[in-house]
Every structure is written in C-alpha cells, then in structure tokens.
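Quick log. Single chain, no ligands specified.
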Amino acid sequence: MKLKWYYIKMLCVLGVIVFLTLFATRRNAAREVHDVTVSFVDESAPFITRETVNKLLIVSNENSTNKAKENIALNEMEKRVSAHPIVKKADVYVTMSGQIGVTIEQRKPIARINGNPSVYMDTSGETMPLSQNFSAHVPLVSGITKKDSTQVYDLASFIKNDSFLSKHIIGIKKYKSGAYVLSARKQTYTITLGKVKALEERFSNYKAFYQKALKDKTLGNYKSISLKFKGQVVCEKL
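-> predicted structure:
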C-alpha cells in the first residue's frame, strides 16, 4: 500500500513539473521582443552599421520588435542579414529576456580592385562592394582583368598573411607585359615582381635587402627594385 502511494505521489510531482515547464515555455514564447542587440565578430572594421542590420531585420515591412517571440521568423531574418554582400555569416536569436540578438561576421578584404565600380577582393577570392562606413587598409590593384583574379588572389593573400608585407605593400599594378609591379609605403622606388611565382623566395630576398638598406640608410637612393631573377635583388639607383 505504501509503495502504491509512493508511485501516486511521484506521478503527481512529475505532472506538476511538466505543467510548469509547458507554462513557462508558453509564457516565454508569448513575451514581446522589446530590443535588438547587434554585435560584430570583429569590431575594428565596421563595414556594415548596426542601423543597416536593424533595417534588414524588418519582416513583412513591420518592425521586428514589439512582437510575440513565437511569431518572429528567426530563419527569415537570418537569411535577410546573411544575404547582405558584406556579411559572411549571421546568427539571429532571441534571448530569455526578450531581446533579439544578432552576431555578424563580416567578409574580410585582402585587396581593393580599381575599376568601375571599384570593389574589394575578400579572403575567399570573391568580390565584395566597398563600404561607405569604413575603408580597409589593403593594397590598391590596377591594370588587371577578370582572368587575372587567381594570380591577384595568390599575391594579395601572401601579402595579407605576412606581418611585414601587409603593412609595407600599398599597391599592385599589372603592366601590359604581364609583369606585376608593387608600390611600397613611404618609399620612392617600385618593386618589380614579374610573374606571380616563387613568392616565398622572392620576398625573403627583398626583406633581406630592405633590412640591410634600412640599416645603411640607403633606401632613399633607389628608383626601382627587381625581384624577377632567381636568388637576386637587382636595384636601379636614382
């Protein structure tokens, strides 16, 4: 008899727990969303503004706030934000307190391609529009066509991933001869790379030359630096 009452009590307790859980879940779903919080994975390069993200969250021409949480189409909102050409990934969610949270990962440019219109090339080799809100400090590329995209991507990626070159190289130009010529920050000379190949070796040679010339205080004496020849750095003085 005691065992029977024990099971009856346990069933009652379980029923109360299930009821309270369903009640809390339903109440939480019906709670109105009252605010939107937008955060960026990288706050140092705000290509897209929080105001723009808020506009993208509008569903059926109505503001997403002041609606019951269960009526908000989070997947639709996430698709709207993710479709923006500067956004790489978006995560849209609703907090327990009734806030819409949005986490934005932006695409990262590695070069700016001069053209009409000018665009960025991102870390995946695709183009992305310029931003009116922020300008990336990446090399300006000119003289190329669409067929040069692979070579430009390889060169720009190498420069971006090198701590010295990413701060040092500000321009990439392709001439009709097919040679790539680079511009260096605060230097009077150009750097003739030639074809995009053996980048590790060529830039290693250039860094050795740069450090020696910097120590000797002779960097301002040169008109051009050529890295076209294997194992050599050929300089032309002013």
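The first strand starts at residue 35 and ends at 40.
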